Design the sequence.
């Protein structure tokens, strides 16, 4: 029994020693050949104030963008606000280490490395997100390639042509330049051409839709030298449906409402005047509201201003049409009153029993067809002839005045409304066809 226990104890000790020897040997191999270098080893002798390839040629920096959102596009300030993920890649031979792995470094250690001095020249305001920490990424690959990513929100200027607003198409840019390193030090390029920009295809905006985009590589020339520049061009097409429902349809309805007065009797002065004045004031309010979202002082005559001006002209023209029709009606009534006065005066002046006959076409001419009774004496005949001569002279003077007035008189004032019912809609339809053809297809 004692011999068996002794044998088991020897076996246990031998297995324990073998296991310890295996563990120690495995840790020693991993520590010697597979342990990745630490940041302290990489930073040993590293000078972050000198760019890579110093005195050996420019550093090639590849860039790519992810457009997270375009928050606001302002026509008043002519700018847009966008949140972007900017990624930059370059190779630093001082950071080469053995193996095929990569090291992700805390973004707060960016001050230990050399990074490009990239900036956005058209930026008005910008900031780096810092919740919960600064949104930076540093990744170092074994061949010395450095990936530097940032999350930035910037308000960038965009020169807009508002001539065709709200049927306009704006082309905005996002430019990236080097602040201090010229072309002899740094070269920029897009990592994958147009595919270097992502997010624009799936972007959803309130008033715009992204029509197209492309990237270019150019140079920025300043007094201090030539600097590398990358440009993203993207075209924005404004969605006109909102403005059709908000501005165009109400203005068209106001113009049609002003035509209702053509079917109202000219004697209804309050009704026709109320329609004309109300539509003019409503159109003025609509024009003022359409300009609140646009620059107050600019040299653009916008398409919406042209259309609102056309509608206002037709509405004001309908009001003037009633003024002209009412004036012609009153003038026509005045001439008829003059005709009646003439007949009464002739009847009063011809007290000898003569009957004046006045035609409707030429009221100023009268013909005596009656004759006096037998003249009792020669003296009475002389008096009658003198009285007739005086009345004829008076009638002739009044007839000349009436002929002068009748030249500027409409024979039937109700024809003005009758013609306006056809002329106004036809002219408005013709102007609309020209307007939409010009601003949509030219």
Sequence:
């Amino acid at each position: 029994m004692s011999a068996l226990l002794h044998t088991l104890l020897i076996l246990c000790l031998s297995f324990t020693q073998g296991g310890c020897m295996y563990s120690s040997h495995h840790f020693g191999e991993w520590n010697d050949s597979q342990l990745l270098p630490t940041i302290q080893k990489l930073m040993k002798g590293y000078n972050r104030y000198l760019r890579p390839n110093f005195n050996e040629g420019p550093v090639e920096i590849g860039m790519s963008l992810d457009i997270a959102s375009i928050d606001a596009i302002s026509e008043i300030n002519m700018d847009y606000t966008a949140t972007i993920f900017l990624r930059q890649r370059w190779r630093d031979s001082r950071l080469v280490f053995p193996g095929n792995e990569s090291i992700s470094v805390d973004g707060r250690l960016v001050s230990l490395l050399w990074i490009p001095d990239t900036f956005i020249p058209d930026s008005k305001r910008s900031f780096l997100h810092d919740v919960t920490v600064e949104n930076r990424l540093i990744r170092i690959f074994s061949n010395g390639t450095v990936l530097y990513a940032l999350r930035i929100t910037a308000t960038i200027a965009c020169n807009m042509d508002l001539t065709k607003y709200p049927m306009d198409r704006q082309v905005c840019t996002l430019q990236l330049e080097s602040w201090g390193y010229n072309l002899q030090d740094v070269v920029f390029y897009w990592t994958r051409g147009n595919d270097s920009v992502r997010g624009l295809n799936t972007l959803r905006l309130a008033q715009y839709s992204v029509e197209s985009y492309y990237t270019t590589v150019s140079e920025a020339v300043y007094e201090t030298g030539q600097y590398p520049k990358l440009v993203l061009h993207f075209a924005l097409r404004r969605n006109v449906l909102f403005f059709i429902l908000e501005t165009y349809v109400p203005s068209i309805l106001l113009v049609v409402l002003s035509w209702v007065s053509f079917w109202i009797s000219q004697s209804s002065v309050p009704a026709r005047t109320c329609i004309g004045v109300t539509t003019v004031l409503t159109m003025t309010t609509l024009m003022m509201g359409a300009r609140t979202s646009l620059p107050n002082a600019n040299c653009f005559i916008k398409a919406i201003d042209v259309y609102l001006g056309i509608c206002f002209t037709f509405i004001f023209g309908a009001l003037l049409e009633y003024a002209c029709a009412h004036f012609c009606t009153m003038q026509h009534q005045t001439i008829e009153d003059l005709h009646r006065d003439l007949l009464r005066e002739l009847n009063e002046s011809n007290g000898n029993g003569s009957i004046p006959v006045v035609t409707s076409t030429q009221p100023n001419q009268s013909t005596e067809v009656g004759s006096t009774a037998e003249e009792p004496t020669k003296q009475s005949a002389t008096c009658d002839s003198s009285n007739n001569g005086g009345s004829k002279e008076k009638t002739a003077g009044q007839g000349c005045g009436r002929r002068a007035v009748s030249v500027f008189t409409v024979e039937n004032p109700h024809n003005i409304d009758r013609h306006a019912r056809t002329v106004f809609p036809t002219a408005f339809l013709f102007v609309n066809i020209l307007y939409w053809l010009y601003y949509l297809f030219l």
